[in-house]
């Protein structure tokens, strides 16, 4: 069966915000803002299609930045996507969305638009930009009118972890199509995110109760359990069981890094994962992605190298978040800092 391969494609660094947990500005607040030229966009696009042809995959693009809509060739790229009948999701800001913009994006094939809520109003506006909390919620209706599914994504840290249940309530109240959260990955000198393993498990337990309550009420919002530690939680609570026909050495789920995902930056740099800061594996302007995949990317497929996960029966399904581990320790294969399972190391 033919599988999808996802490219998280950052076409520009240009952005209306300077979020406190942004990867782009975390290491160097004075960095040059990069953006692809139209020629580089075309070159990268066809490089991706070549990869998918070689490995018999369906391409799926997550277009982002910065804010991709600020790129001068944003609409030309969407037209190129439509020409090749390729579906895509946009990860961007709410500020330039209106009925006409959303209608055009839908016309070109945009399936989903991801917005961020990183706390309730005071916390979110502190993280991102004053007023952006209310604007984000307003744009859910704008996307719905155009037929684009709205995705609300939250980055969880020690600063906002207590507000996640309230965020769920407000997302449901505004009829967002999808809600998910992932953990903050340390990107600067501050490596402690302020979440103990048991505190994180407690959050999952509280969210699980809320998800079930809203699902019983047949609410519109779909809850995407994005963090792979959900697998551990559901295993412990009997909601996930290891299949009896599972084969040794097979990988069935967990982190997509090294499996069916790659990130492309505005410089053309290819990353195994955008959240893993030292994971550059090549450049889309100079390297054939199909060759990078079988050579440099092999570094991220050493499943027996996981220091803790390799000793766990959930290795083929979980592996936590290697990006969080890498951000804290510099080691992709280190133990997930929020994994609460006790395993003899």
From TrEMBL:
Pfam families: Radical_SAM, SPASM
One annotated GO molecular function: 4 iron, 4 sulfur cluster binding
Keyword vocabulary terms for this entry: 4Fe-4S, Iron, Iron-sulfur, Metal-binding, S-adenosyl-L-methionine
InterPro entries: 4Fe4S-binding_SPASM_dom, Aldolase_TIM, Elp3/MiaA/NifB-like_rSAM, PqqE-like, Radical_SAM_PqqE_MftC-like, rSAM, rSAM_ACGX, rSAM_sf
Keyword field contains Iron: yes
PROSITE patterns tied to this protein: RADICAL_SAM
Domain Radical SAM core: from-to ranges: 1-224
Signal peptide: none
Cofactor field: [4Fe-4S] cluster
PANTHER family: PQQA PEPTIDE CYCLASE (PTHR11228:SF7), RADICAL SAM DOMAIN PROTEIN (PTHR11228)
Name of protein: Radical SAM/SPASM domain protein, ACGX system
Organism: Sellimonas intestinalis
């Amino acid at each position: 069966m033919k599988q999808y391969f996802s490219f998280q494609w950052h076409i520009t660094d240009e952005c209306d915000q300077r979020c406190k947990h942004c990867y782009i500005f975390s290491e160097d607040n004075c960095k040059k803002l990069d953006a692809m030229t139209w020629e580089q966009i075309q070159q990268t696009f066809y490089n991706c299609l070549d990869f998918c042809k070689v490995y018999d995959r369906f391409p799926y693009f997550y277009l982002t930045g910065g804010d991709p809509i600020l790129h001068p060739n944003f609409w030309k790229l969407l037209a190129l996507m439509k020409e090749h009948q390729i579906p895509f999701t946009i990860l961007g800001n709410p500020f330039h969305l209106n009925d006409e913009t959303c209608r055009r994006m839908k016309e070109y094939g945009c399936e989903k638009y991801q917005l961020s809520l990183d706390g309730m109003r005071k916390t979110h506006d502190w993280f991102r930009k004053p007023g952006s909390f209310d604007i984000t919620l307003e744009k859910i209706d704008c996307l719905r009118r155009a037929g684009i599914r709205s995705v609300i994504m939250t980055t969880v840290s020690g600063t906002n972890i207590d507000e996640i249940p309230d965020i769920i309530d407000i997302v449901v109240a505004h009829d967002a199509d999808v809600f998910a959260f992932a953990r903050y990955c340390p990107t600067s000198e501050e490596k402690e995110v302020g979440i103990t393993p048991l505190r994180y498990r407690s959050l999952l337990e509280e969210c699980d109760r809320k998800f079930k309550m809203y699902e019983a009420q047949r609410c519109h919002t779909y809850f995407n359990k994005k963090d792979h530690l959900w697998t551990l939680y559901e295993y412990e609570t009997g909601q996930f069981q290891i299949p009896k026909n599972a084969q040794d050495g097979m990988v069935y789920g967990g982190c997509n890094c090294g499996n069916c995902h790659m990130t492309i930056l505005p410089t053309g740099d290819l990353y195994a994962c955008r959240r893993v800061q030292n994971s550059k594996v090549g450049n889309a302007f100079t390297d054939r992605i199909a060759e990078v995949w079988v050579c440099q990317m092999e570094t991220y497929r050493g499943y027996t190298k996981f220091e803790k996960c390799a000793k766990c029966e959930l290795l083929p399904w979980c592996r936590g978040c290697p990006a969080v581990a890498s951000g804290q320790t510099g080691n992709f294969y280190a133990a997930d800092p929020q994994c609460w399972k006790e395993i003899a190391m």
